[in-house]
Design a protein that fits this description.
Blueprint (H helix, E strand, L loop, with lengths): L1 E4 L7 H17 L2 E4 L6 H9 L2 E4 L9 E4 L6 H9 L3 E4 L3 H15 L3 E5 L5 H9 L5 E3 L11 E6 L5 H15 L5 E4 L5 H14 L4 E5 L5 H12 L4 E4 L15 E6 L5 H12 L2
Parallel strand pairs: 1-12, 2-3, 2-4, 4-5, 6-7, 6-8, 8-9, 10-11, 10-12
Length: 278
């Protein structure tokens, strides 16, 4: 069986940076607590736990020492609360996410009605709304736009699909003609996310079946599954090699493999090795 690998897949630079910062802090201080999961991958979380990187749901759970804000970011009040509790803060927020936070704050301060194309409850989106002073609104359809808004600012969660965001932006502008003074749209889709989605789309045109390696908790992993499935290719998500169902591969000659941005090479490698032995 031929195994075709996506040209762009697995850990992105932002996730690698977050892991390195957290591991360095744990080595220096003995342990560190991340405010929520550092990455959405249970196997990586177990490895971090063994290195002294533990998960806390909020600042109140940490008695003392070091806390880390995850790569997804957090509202500014989180760091402020940690400092009030006398904690040391390590901020691993991805620079791409930091840019969205800054834009949300600036546009809200400039009087824009800020909308975020994102997943309700996702930690990145919660952080972006927090940086807007709680004024940003989460949407997934142009129907949710306030028809009386005079200045609209549109942002996106970094892992959203670019085509879907473009469609939303065009629809928002169309609906706002004649009523809105200004619509400001920023492309805040992460370049690494976009490259992985483009590579997955290309892979779907080459393979008879696709295996996506990553956690069901990972938004960008789910996007890859949706993208490949939408092209009519049987697509399966697994977290490790032992989950491969060989019935998926029956009578297939070409299998494609990609992985979410929270999936390291040491998890993808055994998957590829297993498939190549077939």
């Amino acid at each position: 069986m031929e195994v075709i690998l996506a040209k762009e897949m697995g850990f992105c630079w932002g996730v690698k940076r977050a892991l390195e910062l957290a591991e360095k802090a744990a080595a220096q201080h003995g342990q560190v607590h991340t405010l929520g999961a550092l990455v959405h991958n249970d196997q990586v979380a177990r490895r971090l736990e063994s290195l002294g990187v533990h998960v806390a749901e909020n600042v109140a759970e940490v008695a003392g020492g070091v806390v880390a804000i995850t790569s997804h970011g957090a509202p500014p009040q989180v760091a402020e609360e940690a400092y009030r509790h006398g904690l040391t803060v390590v901020d691993t927020t991805c620079p791409f996410v930091r840019r969205v936070q800054r834009l949300a704050r600036e546009m809200a301060e400039d009087g824009y009605t800020v909308y975020v194309f994102g997943d309700e409850g996702h930690s990145e989106v919660v952080g972006i709304v927090g940086w807007s002073g709680g004024r940003a609104r989460i949407i997934n359809s142009a129907d949710q736009i306030d028809p009386d808004a005079r200045k609209i600012g549109l942002l996106s969660q970094t892992t959203k699909n670019l085509d879907a965001y473009r469609h939303l932006a065009m629809e928002v502008m169309r609906r706002s003609l004649g009523t809105c003074f200004e619509v400001r749209v920023h492309n805040t889709i992460c370049d690494a996310t976009l490259k992985r989605q483009e590579a997955a789309a290309l892979l779907a045109g080459q393979a008879e079946v696709i295996i996506v390696v990553g956690s069901a908790k990972s938004a960008n992993t789910r996007r890859l599954v949706e993208l490949c499935s939408a092209q009519g290719v049987p697509t399966y998500r697994i977290e490790e090699a032992g989950e491969i169902d060989f019935a998926w591969l029956r009578d297939k000659k070409r299998v494609g493999v990609t992985a979410g941005a929270s999936t390291p090479n040491w998890i993808v490698g055994p998957v590829v090795d297993t498939l190549r032995r077939l």
